[in-house]
């Protein structure tokens, strides 16, 4: 069975051109004019783009005494509805748990996925077992990225010595470390101080995590990565201080990547001042939403290329779960949803406003992360042989975002009431037509795990440079006798 997407304009990270796209066996089979197939999808007036890749999701994640409420079924359904055809989730070992056990647990959860997925492995503790299993994870299990939390003291946080050890191991294995960069020690002290002063509402969550906390940790993570000789990817970059650290590092030749979230780009700190406790608590995530100065910095970073990808960090909790933190903001589960809205919100606030070109939109929603994760051009591209993960984007289609019509399992939406213009007409997951004009035709279990090879080029270049510049003993002849 072959499918042809006909009459649209192909938009990739580099090119815009008129062509039909033919699909066979889940792959792009031909690109050109006048193609035909068993099934035709009319793309007149639409842009035919690589499906989105969300670099950062937390589906059914055990966190803060509960589990995030979207699982791989509802989460990937939401992803496809919004034009995202691949998600990258996190396998999260509990303290002392084997990385391989955690991975098996995640494979058990993901069997219901509607679109393709991959994982980052989290480093939540350190020891010889973790050191050894990292090699298996990279060489045998198809995972080349490891996430480190500098925040969540007493839970997921790792210290600098553990991070340095893990980064060096990543360098040896051809893996890329990811970092949640917030100074967990300072946050813990600020939280205690705010609570002691009676400041226990959701707004205190934002007060306890000022931009300096993030800027300091981002810079520290980048410097540690540089000393370890490995590139580094900073997740959910939310402020100018963190962006500045990434920008400066890149100007100095350091391979550091930054990832703003669609939430931070389009929602600001005034959400926490809302008199409705539920409204504010539903928006509690780390880092918190910031002011316009920070938002402008993030948009500028996407335009200038100093920030690479737009993610969601989709970690959705119901209102009931958020209420665990009534009377103590530190117990509000951290996280917000966004999978279904990432692409329409970015198109509306990025492309429709002239802040991003269509090609830049494709780069930051798909192609850049495919390259960073070493899965390009299987993903993130429309090329003959690429997976047919494709979104046919209708720039004239509009809607108002509402939790009543969303795919996510939770009872609200942080973008509630926002009007978007630019939505998928069709979404194809490895050739399977999964969304047709808002109608959901996803197939549970269709999604497959995407194994990713270790990095060759960047890690080789960095280790070569490290070797050339490593400390060397100076060999001297005629050393004078000791003066003692
Ligand atoms: N970001 C957030 O608040 N929740 C998800 C877990 C994490 O990545 O920090
Ligand atoms: Zn995080």
UniProtKB/TrEMBL annotation:
Domain annotation Amidohydrolase-related: ranges: 47-418
Alphabetical UniProt keywords: Hydrolase, Metal-binding, Zinc
Cofactor names: Zn(2+)
Organism superkingdom: Bacteria
Modification after translation, per record: Carbamylation allows a single lysine to coordinate two divalent metal cations.
Residues bearing PTM N6-carboxylysine: 147
Reaction(s) this enzyme catalyzes, per UniProt: 5,6-dihydrouracil + H2O = 3-(carbamoylamino)propanoate + H(+)
Pfam families named in the record: Amidohydro_1 (PF01979)
Gene Ontology MF, one: dihydropyrimidinase activity
EC code: 3.5.2.2
Summary of the function given for this chain in its UniProt record: Catalyzes the hydrolysis of dihydropyrimidines and of the structurally related DL-5-mono-substituted hydantoins, to produce N-carbamoyl-D-amino acids.
Name assigned to this protein: D-hydantoinase/dihydropyrimidinase
Protein source organism: Microbaculum marinisediminis
Gene: hydA
């Amino acid at each position: 069975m072959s499918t042809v997407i006909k009459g649209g304009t192909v938009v990739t990270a580099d090119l815009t051109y008129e062509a039909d796209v033919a699909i066979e066996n889940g792959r792009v089979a031909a690109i050109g004019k006048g193609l035909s197939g068993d099934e035709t999808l009319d793309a007149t007036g639409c842009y035919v783009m690589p499906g989105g890749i969300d670099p950062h999701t937390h589906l059914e994640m055990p966190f803060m005494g509960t589990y995030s409420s979207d699982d791989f079924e509802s989460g990937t359904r939401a992803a496809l509805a919004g034009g995202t055809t691949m998600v990258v989730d996190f396998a999260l070992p509990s303290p002392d748990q084997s990385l391989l056990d955690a991975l098996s647990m995640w494979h058990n959860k993901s069997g219901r996925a509607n679109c393709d997925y991959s994982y980052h492995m989290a480093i939540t503790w350190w020891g010889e077992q973790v050191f050894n299993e990292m090699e298996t994870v990279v060489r045998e299990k198809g995972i080349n990225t490891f996430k480190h939390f500098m925040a969540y003291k007493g839970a997921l946080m790792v210290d600098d010595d553990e991070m340095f050890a893990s980064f060096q191991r990543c360098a040896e294995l051809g893996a890329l470390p990811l970092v949640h960069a917030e100074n967990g020690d300072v946050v813990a002290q600020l939280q205690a101080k705010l609570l002691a002063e009676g400041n226990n509402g959701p707004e205190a969550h934002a007060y306890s995590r000022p931009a300096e906390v993030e800027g300091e940790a981002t810079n520290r993570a980048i410097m540690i990565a540089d000393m370890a000789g490995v590139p580094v990817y900073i997740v959910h970059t939310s402020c100018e201080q963190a962006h500045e650290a990434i920008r400066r590092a890149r100007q100095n030749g350091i391979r550091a990547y930054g990832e703003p979230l669609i939430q931070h780009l389009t929602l600001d700190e005034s959400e926490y001042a809302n008199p409705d406790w539920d409204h504010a608590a539903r928006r509690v995530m780390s880092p918190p939403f910031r002011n316009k100065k920070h938002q402008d910095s993030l948009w500028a970073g996407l335009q200038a290329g100093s920030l690479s990808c737009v993610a969601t960090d989709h970690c959705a909790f119901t209102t009931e779960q958020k209420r665990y933190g009534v009377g103590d903001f530190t117990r509000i589960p951290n996280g917000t949803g966004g999978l279904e809205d990432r692409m329409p919100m970015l198109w509306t606030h990025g492309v429709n406003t002239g802040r991003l070109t269509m090609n830049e939109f494709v780069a930051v929603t798909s192609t850049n992360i495919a390259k960073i994760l070493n899965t390009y051009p299987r993903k993130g591209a429309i090329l003959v042989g690429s997976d047919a993960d494709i979104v046919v984007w209708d720039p004239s289609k509009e809607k108002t975002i509402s939790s009543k019509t969303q795919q996510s399992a939770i009872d609200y939406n942080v973008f509630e009431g926002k009007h978007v213009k630019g939505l998928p007409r069709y979404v194809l997951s490895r050739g399977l037509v999964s969304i047709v004009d808002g109608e959901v035709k996803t197939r549970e279990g269709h999604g497959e795990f995407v194994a990713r090879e270790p990095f060759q080029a960047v890690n080789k270049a960095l280790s070569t440079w490290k070797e050339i510049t490593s400390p060397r003993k100076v060999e001297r002849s005629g050393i004078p006798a000791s003066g003692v």
